[in-house]
Each structure stands twice: as C-alpha cells, then as structure tokens.
C-alpha cells in the first residue's frame, strides 16, 4: 500500500498494470480493499488505480471545504493521467458521475455498480427503512453526541451500525447475511466498522456537493449501470433511472445479488468490466 499527497492531503492508494487507465471508486460503507478481485484482474490489461476517498480507509481528514470529484481529478493530475475509465460502487458511482460532468473530456467510460447520485432524494420507503434500522442500532441521542464529538465511542455501537448496513444493503432487505461468502462478510464488516469509528471521531470537514440530478442527459460517456436485484428497492429504482437518463448507458441486472456485486459476484463483474473496457471506443 502507498500514499500520495494531493492538495495537501495524503491519500492511500494502489496502482498496478499498464495500458488504458481505470480508476476504482469504493462505496461509502467500505474502502479501496473492496476492489481486491477487480484490481488484480484488470491490471493484466490496464493501468489500474484504486484509492481511499477523503475520510475513508488510510486517507486523512483535513479541515476545510472539498469535493470528492475534485480530489479524483487532482489525483489523476498527480499521476499524469489525462483520461481514465471510472468504475464506481454506490457513492463511488456518484463521484464518477460528478467527474464526468466536470471534466467530460477526461472520462472515457463509466461503470456504475449500485450507484448513488449526488443530490438525489431517496424515496420515502427507503428513508423510513433506514431511520428504523438506525434507531434500532443506536439511540438518536447517542448518535447526535457522536456526530458532535461529545462522547467516547462505544465499540458496541460501531458494531451495531455496521451490522445494520450489512443486513439492509450488503445482503439486501429480503436476504439473510448467511448467503454472503464468509470472507466477503468478514472484510465488509471490518471496513464498515472502520467507517463508523472514523465518522464519529475524526476531524470534520465540509463537502461541496454538486447537484447532478438534473444533468444526467449531458453525460454522453459510454456507461454500464450494474445493479443487484436483491439490493434495496430505492437503489434498484435509481439504477434503472440512471440507465434511462444517461444517453449512452446500458443496464445490467444481476439476480440474487446485493449492494456490492464486485465483492459478491467478482467473476461476473470482472467479465462485465473486461468486455466493456476492452470494446472499441465509440468516441475520442
């Protein structure tokens, strides 16, 4: 594992391989380790970079105002990369879309897996599910104290929040966590617990959030939108919306798959990536 300084912040990142550049953008319930199968497989034919976004994994928090997509573009500059394909999971997908709007000439292809969307309002049913699961995991008063950095973090609360995310997102609302591969489950649990420990203890910074919702038609980059059909219904609905709204997108639906198909179905996702990334370019 290596570190690279971008804009005064040290980012944890890995790079391997030669060829067209591909950047892997992790989900908000994990870090760059979620891409282990894809990082190794794609390095045989591509120059592959994965990194921990600001506030995740090995990347530091620095007080101030930042945007994840600006960090991404600055990291490309730091590595001398003019153009890259972006592969984003969950909120990593939202970051990829933001970058494609900000610098369309630099993004050659997009792969969005269980993607988020900056500025998106989640449907009422999903917000209600999340509110219920959060309340069951940690009392609201204690969450508020953690957010304000006014309480010492109880490891039991960290575990409870991680488990709530694993049940609802990683497995999916209608599946039991026992369906997940044990090694995957162990890594997701470790990553997700780290996310909450960090969120409740690290220095705070402000994220500049663009509103990408109404600009999807401007993104003409060739795209694949991948969604596990066992994921939360709001995320399935959003992926279908993305596929309908992006001019050059195709939708790939994976049966019996949750929120992290790159981890749960690595060989299927690797095959999708190889086929799409190695196809002849549709435009310069």
Explain what you see.
With 284 residues, the protein is α/β, with parallel strands linked by helices. It contains ten helices and ten strands. The strands form two sheets. An eight-stranded mixed beta sheet has the order 1-2-4-3-6-7-9-10, sandwiched between helices. A two-stranded parallel sheet has the order 5-8. Strand 1 and strand 2 form a beta hairpin. Helix 1 (36-42) runs parallel beside helix 10 (266-278), helix 2 crosses helix 3 and helix 4 (124-137) runs antiparallel to helix 6 (155-171). The longest helix is centred in the C-terminal third of the chain and has 18 residues, at 182-199. It is globular, with a radius of gyration of 18 Å.
Can you tell me the residue ranges where pLDDT is under 50 for at least 5 consecutive residues? none
Gross geometry = globular
Radius of gyration: 18 Å
Strand content: 15-25%
Number of strands: 10
Strand order of the largest sheet: 1-2-4-3-6-7-9-10
Task: Tally the helices.
Answer: 10
| Mean pLDDT value | 94
Question: What is the distance, rounded to the nearest whole angstrom, between the alpha carbons of the first and last residues?
Answer: 33 Å
Helix content: 40-55%
Secondary-structure element series: EEEHEEHEHEHHHHEEHEHH
Derived from helix and strand composition plus strand pairing, the structural class reads alpha/beta
Major β-sheet, in short?
8 strands, mixed
């Amino acid at each position: 594992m290596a570190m690279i300084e971008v804009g005064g912040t040290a980012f944890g990142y890995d790079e391997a391989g030669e060829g067209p550049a591909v950047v892997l953008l992790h989900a908000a319930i994990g870090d760059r380790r979620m891409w282990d199968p894809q990082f190794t497989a794609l390095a045989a034919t591509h120059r592959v970079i994965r990194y921990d976004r600001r506030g995740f994994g090995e990347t530091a928090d620095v007080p101030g105002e930042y945007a994840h997509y600006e960090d991404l573009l600055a990291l490309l500059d730091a590595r001398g990369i003019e153009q890259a394909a972006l592969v984003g999971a969950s909120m990593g997908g939202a970051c990829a879309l933001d970058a494609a709007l900000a610098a369309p000439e630099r993004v050659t292809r997009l792969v969005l897996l269980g993607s988020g969307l900056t500025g998106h309002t989640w449907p009422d049913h999903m917000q209600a599910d999340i509110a219920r699961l959060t309340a069951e995991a940690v009392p609201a008063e204690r969450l508020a104290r953690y957010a304000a950095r006014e309480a010492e973090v109880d490891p039991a609360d960290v575990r409870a929040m991680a488990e709530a995310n694993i049940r609802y997102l990683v497995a999916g609302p209608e599946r039991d966590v026992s369906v997940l591969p044990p090694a995957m489950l162990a890594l997701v649990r470790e990553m997700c617990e780290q996310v909450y420990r960090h969120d409740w203890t690290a220095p705070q910074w402000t994220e500049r959030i663009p509103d990408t919702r109404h600009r999807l038609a401007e993104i003409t980059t060739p795209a694949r939108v991948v969604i596990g059909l066992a994921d939360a219904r709001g995320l399935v609905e959003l992926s279908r919306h993305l596929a309908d709204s992006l001019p050059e997108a195709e939708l790939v639906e994976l049966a019996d798959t949750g929120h992290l198909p790159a981890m749960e179905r690595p060989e299927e996702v690797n095959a999708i990536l190889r086929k799409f990334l190695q196809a002849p370019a549709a435009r310069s």
